[in-house]
Amino acid sequence: MASDLDTTPVIATRREEATGFFQRMVSKGLGWARKNSLWQYPYVTACCGMEYMSVSSARYDIARFGAEVPRFSPRQADLLLVVGTINCKQAPILKRVYEQMSEPKWVIAFGVCASSGGFYDNYATMQGIDRVIPVDVYIPGCPPRPEQVLDGLMLLQRKIQDQQHKLIDRAQVPTLAQGGGERR
Amino acid sequence: MATDSHGMGGRDPQATPGSFGAGEPARPFEGQHHARGYEGALDAPLKGRQMVVNLGPSHPAMHGVTRAVVALEGETIVEMKLDIGFLHRGFEKSCENVTWGQCFPYTDRLNYVSSILNNVGFALVVEKLCKMEVPLRARYLRVLTGELHRICDHLTLVAAMGLELGAMTVFLYGIEARDLIWDRLTEICGARLTSNYVRVGGVSRDCPDDWPAKVEQTLARVAELRETIDKLLTRNRIFMDRTRGTGVISREDALDFGFTGPCLRASGEPYDIRKAAPYLVYDQLDFDVPVGKNGDNFDRYLMRMEEMRQSDRIVRQCLRQMEPGDIVVQDFRYVLPPKPQVYGTIEGLMAHFKLVMEGIKVPAGEAYSYTEAANGELGFYAVSDGGGRAYKLGLRAPGWPMVAALPHMTKGALLADLVPTYDSINMIGGEVEQ
């Protein structure tokens, strides 16, 4: 995904060019810093939690990607890892936790239950967390192998690097409650 | 009551008269904690307002899914209520919509730490209905892989308990040992933790030729790691202070609540289904049942450590006693025929088609099978109407009585003691909330 700043207008004054260049550099630097220091909030509910334990332990060692710090307060985290089945009773809490996280924030759906409901196609289970919160990377598997999880994490890192980052963002960030992303 | 006004519901009008649910005061019992008395009036804390703290549902100490509403007087738990159902995913109903054979993946995800033990429990109830005799080698393979998974389950508990009491190293050792066992299980069934290995009438695959030798190597390494964990925790002053005398439940109360498995044995009752009503080949194996005496968190931890050693013995005996032979019954009403027969003969093709499309025709009737899973008695109650699907399936989750007893076990204890207690009863969301 190309950054928005890469498409500068053809006619630009020197001042604008200089600002654009500076902003691009800042954006790249921020992207590099953010992708290598993801603080995760593990929203662990079910079986995938066992694989999450393996991913964060010595053999697979998520620390190699700078994402080894689990924070159990949404205010301190910028990566929401939804690990396991989310059912209808759990969904409002997941949404609340997501809204409590401060910007910028990313979401990984860990496992097939979080991605699409998996084979729990019944009255109790929500058919994928993207019905309540936006998702950046989906990791399939029931549960996914740790290698697959690390691949998903690297995918997210590439995505973060390519996004546009600003030092100060004055624009109002639309929340789901106002933005109409809510499912009826 | 303090927690009544916080969205937890009130009294149940249909509860049995005289029970706790009907509003009667809880029966006092021996193991209950009492807040320590103070020597003088100056030492006593100031009288404060009662505070209600909400633990969970997304809280690291609540293992992800349970919500505990705790009324606190200072740091002492006055009352606690548990709100479960955050991982209810409709196990029983889902199983009624698929064929008998397709239920196995659902049973994998009940207690996802020891899935083969669940597979075995479910296979036994179907085989009971079909009155089927399983080949000897299949029975040995079931016991062998099941006990490997029991080691995994206990390792996870000990590792998580260490982690939550501040011993991160223990967690890393425990997970390393568990990964080694999962490597062996991957070689035999293709999956790391949701194995789907057992079938009605046997098991899905035979073990590779060099597998037994590799299992023995793995067990040796796991034993090394286990002893390291033992050295790090069992005589550790902090760990002992946190776990001894906390979360106590006496033998009588444990029996009243319906405890089974390691939690019951930690309270001094030597009841193990593998000994009391042997199934598969447990009557031909030599192993001991460890029994505790205090019924506190420390004893429950020790039970797990000792059971891992016993499972180790069982696996080694299985490897020695196992002889080559069939791994499934040779009856195509229950088991898929081998591929050459499916492609080469019309009978094989028909049997395959019928099994895949309609499922196993289990004779009409009802049966209950109970096995010793890692946390206690795992019961499956199945009703069949003779069609290809379960008419009704019921589950007796091993962790359920322990979770139900938690408010009683922690009454009067400190809030910090709730964490090791919650760990040592090993509540697994998948099976308790189904």
TrEMBL record, chain A:
<comment type="similarity">
    <text>Belongs to the complex I 20 kDa subunit family.</text>
</comment>
<protein>
    <recommendedName>
        <fullName>NADH-quinone oxidoreductase subunit B</fullName>
        <ecNumber>7.1.1.-</ecNumber>
    </recommendedName>
</protein>
<keyword id="KW-0874">Quinone</keyword>
<dbReference type="GO" id="GO:0005886">
    <property type="term" value="C:plasma membrane"/>
</dbReference>
<dbReference type="GO" id="GO:0005506">
    <property type="term" value="F:iron ion binding"/>
</dbReference>
<dbReference type="GO" id="GO:0051539">
    <property type="term" value="F:4 iron, 4 sulfur cluster binding"/>
</dbReference>
<dbReference type="GO" id="GO:0015990">
    <property type="term" value="P:electron transport coupled proton transport"/>
</dbReference>
<dbReference type="InterPro" id="IPR006138">
    <property type="entry name" value="NADH_UQ_OxRdtase_20Kd_su"/>
</dbReference>
<keyword id="KW-0997">Cell inner membrane</keyword>
<keyword id="KW-1003">Cell membrane</keyword>
<comment type="subunit">
    <text>NDH-1 is composed of 14 different subunits. Subunits NuoB, C, D, E, F, and G constitute the peripheral sector of the complex.</text>
</comment>
<dbReference type="Pfam" id="PF01058">
    <property type="entry name" value="Oxidored_q6"/>
</dbReference>
<keyword id="KW-0813">Transport</keyword>
<dbReference type="GO" id="GO:0009060">
    <property type="term" value="P:aerobic respiration"/>
</dbReference>
<keyword id="KW-0472">Membrane</keyword>
<comment type="function">
    <text>NDH-1 shuttles electrons from NADH, via FMN and iron-sulfur (Fe-S) centers, to quinones in the respiratory chain. Couples the redox reaction to proton translocation (for every two electrons transferred, four hydrogen ions are translocated across the cytoplasmic membrane), and thus conserves the redox energy in a proton gradient.</text>
</comment>
<keyword id="KW-0411">Iron-sulfur</keyword>
<keyword id="KW-0830">Ubiquinone</keyword>
<feature type="binding site">
    <location>
        <position position="142"/>
    </location>
    <ligand>
        <name>[4Fe-4S] cluster</name>
    </ligand>
</feature>
<dbReference type="GO" id="GO:0050136">
    <property type="term" value="F:NADH dehydrogenase (quinone) (non-electrogenic) activity"/>
</dbReference>
<dbReference type="GO" id="GO:0008137">
    <property type="term" value="F:NADH dehydrogenase (ubiquinone) activity"/>
</dbReference>
<feature type="binding site">
    <location>
        <position position="113"/>
    </location>
    <ligand>
        <name>[4Fe-4S] cluster</name>
    </ligand>
</feature>
Automatic annotation (TrEMBL), chain B:
<dbReference type="GO" id="GO:0050136">
    <property type="term" value="F:NADH dehydrogenase (quinone) (non-electrogenic) activity"/>
</dbReference>
<protein>
    <recommendedName>
        <fullName>NADH-quinone oxidoreductase subunit D</fullName>
        <ecNumber>7.1.1.-</ecNumber>
    </recommendedName>
</protein>
<keyword id="KW-0520">NAD</keyword>
<dbReference type="InterPro" id="IPR001135">
    <property type="entry name" value="NADH_Q_OxRdtase_suD"/>
</dbReference>
<comment type="similarity">
    <text>Belongs to the complex I 49 kDa subunit family.</text>
</comment>
<dbReference type="Pfam" id="PF00346">
    <property type="entry name" value="Complex1_49kDa"/>
</dbReference>
<keyword id="KW-0830">Ubiquinone</keyword>
<keyword id="KW-1003">Cell membrane</keyword>
<keyword id="KW-0997">Cell inner membrane</keyword>
<keyword id="KW-0874">Quinone</keyword>
<dbReference type="InterPro" id="IPR022885">
    <property type="entry name" value="NDH1_su_D/H"/>
</dbReference>
<dbReference type="GO" id="GO:0051287">
    <property type="term" value="F:NAD binding"/>
</dbReference>
<dbReference type="GO" id="GO:0048038">
    <property type="term" value="F:quinone binding"/>
</dbReference>
<keyword id="KW-0813">Transport</keyword>
<comment type="function">
    <text>NDH-1 shuttles electrons from NADH, via FMN and iron-sulfur (Fe-S) centers, to quinones in the respiratory chain. The immediate electron acceptor for the enzyme in this species is believed to be ubiquinone. Couples the redox reaction to proton translocation (for every two electrons transferred, four hydrogen ions are translocated across the cytoplasmic membrane), and thus conserves the redox energy in a proton gradient.</text>
</comment>
<keyword id="KW-0472">Membrane</keyword>
<feature type="region of interest" description="Disordered">
    <location>
        <begin position="1"/>
        <end position="32"/>
    </location>
</feature>
<feature type="domain" description="NADH-quinone oxidoreductase subunit D">
    <location>
        <begin position="165"/>
        <end position="433"/>
    </location>
</feature>
<dbReference type="InterPro" id="IPR029014">
    <property type="entry name" value="NiFe-Hase_large"/>
</dbReference>
<dbReference type="GO" id="GO:0005886">
    <property type="term" value="C:plasma membrane"/>
</dbReference>
<keyword id="KW-1278">Translocase</keyword>
<comment type="subunit">
    <text>NDH-1 is composed of 14 different subunits. Subunits NuoB, C, D, E, F, and G constitute the peripheral sector of the complex.</text>
</comment>
